[in-house]
Specification:
Blueprint (H helix, E strand, L loop, with lengths): L1 E12 L2 E7 L2 H4 L3 E3 L2 E3 L6 H13 L1 E16 L4 E15 L11 E7 L1 H4 L12 H7 L12 E2 L1
């Protein structure tokens, strides 16, 4: 069994979230919108990896906020056991444009309102509704999961 760690930044500005239009079938089917993110490098921390991925995939420099979501995954078909970490982030510089896409999986990056997000396929699916509720409540800690929302 292989282990996989994925890190992602949920970038928020003016009540909009920045998502990447991905054609990566490894994520969940094809033609989905996801927060910028990817694999953690061997020598970096989880927050640093999320911020690096955000810059590579969007061109934006972002300031990390709190860890808001954790997702446990098990891909039975490929025998991969994975963990995904999602950080809240704020843009602090740069210009919106993908910087590093060697696989050609990123079609575009775009800001979404809650209403916009309801009209597209989003992964993880919890971002469509749960995220907006959590944002409104300022990501109040979830005591059931030790202060972190797990899905």
């Amino acid at each position: 069994m292989r282990q996989s760690t994925r890190v992602a930044a949920i970038i928020v500005k003016d009540d909009k979230v920045l998502l990447i239009h991905s054609h990566d079938s490894k994520i969940k089917g094809t033609n989905v919108w996801v927060p910028p993110g990817g694999g953690l490098k061997h020598d970096e921390t989880i927050p640093a990896g999320a911020m690096r991925e955000a810059r590579e995939e969007t061109g934006l420099k972002v300031k990390p906020g709190k860890l808001i979501y954790f997702r446990h995954c098990h891909d039975i078909n490929n025998d991969i056991h994975g963990a995904e970490f999602y950080f809240l982030a704020t843009p602090i510089g740069g210009k919106l444009s993908p910087q590093d896409d060697p696989d050609g999986d990123i079609a575009e990056a775009r800001w979404f309102t809650k209403e916009d997000m309801a009209r597209v396929t989003v992964y993880p699916e919890e971002l469509r509704d749960l995220f907006w509720k959590d944002l409104k409540e300022n990501f109040k800690d979830n005591p059931k999961d030790g202060g972190l929302r797990v899905f």
